[in-house]
C-alpha cells in the first residue's frame, strides 16, 4: 500500500504541481486548501507525512503544525514547511512550531522528493523501534516482576535526573524546545541543555536517534 502524503497550500498551481509529482513518485496524495481543512484531514486520513505552506487563510502553517503536534497520535508525524519567507527568525518560528524541515520557495520538486524520502525512512525506523520496544516490554512484564525490571535497567539510566527523564518523555511526543519549556516552565535554551545531556549520556548524535534509543530500551512509556 502506498504511503499517504497530505499537501496543504492555498495556491492551486503549487498544490497541483506537488501532488502530480508525488503521485508519479508512487505516493497516495490528499490535499487541503488551508490549515483548518488540513487539520480535519489529518484526523480523517492519518497521513504518513505532511507538506504545508505557511501563509494561508483561516489557519496558517505554524498554527497547523502546533495543533497537530498537540495530538499524541500525530506527535511524530513528519512535517515539511514550504514558504517564500526566508528570514532567520521566520525559520526559527517554523522549527519551534515543530516542523522537521523548512524548505524555502522556490524549490525544485526533486529536492522536495529527496527530503520526503529521507523523512519517511526515518519515521518508519522510529515507528518500528517503538513497536519492537512495546512488544519487548509487554513480554518482559508478562514474565518478570516489576522489581526485577527495575534491577535490570541500564546503569546509565539510573543516573538520569528527574528533569532529564521529563524532557526525554516529551521528546518522544515530538515537542519543540519552546513547547517543552512551556510544559516544564523552562526556557528553550535550558531545555536544549537537557537534550544535549541526554544525547551525551545515551551516546546518540541527534534527537531522532535519541527517540529510537529510548523506545528500544523501554525508557519511556
TrEMBL record:
It holds the Pfam family GerE. GO terms for molecular function: phosphorelay response regulator activity; transcription cis-regulatory region binding. InterPro entries: CheY-like_superfamily (IPR011006), Sig_transdc_resp-reg_receiver (IPR001789), Tscrpt_reg_LuxR_C (IPR000792), WalR-like (IPR039420), WH-like_DNA-bd_sf (IPR036388). The keyword Chloroplast does not apply. CDD domains: LuxR_C_like. The modification 4-aspartylphosphate is found at residue 53. Residues 4-120 form the Response regulatory domain. GO terms for cellular component: cytosol; protein-DNA complex. SUPFAM superfamilies: CheY-like (SSF52172). Keywords: DNA-binding, Phosphoprotein, Transcription, Transcription regulation. SMART domains: HTH_LUXR, REC. Residues 153-218 form the HTH luxR-type domain. One of its GO terms (biological process) is regulation of DNA-templated transcription. It comes from the Bacteria. Signal peptide: none annotated. Transmembrane segments: none annotated. This is DNA-binding response regulator. It comes from Fischerella muscicola CCMEE 5323.
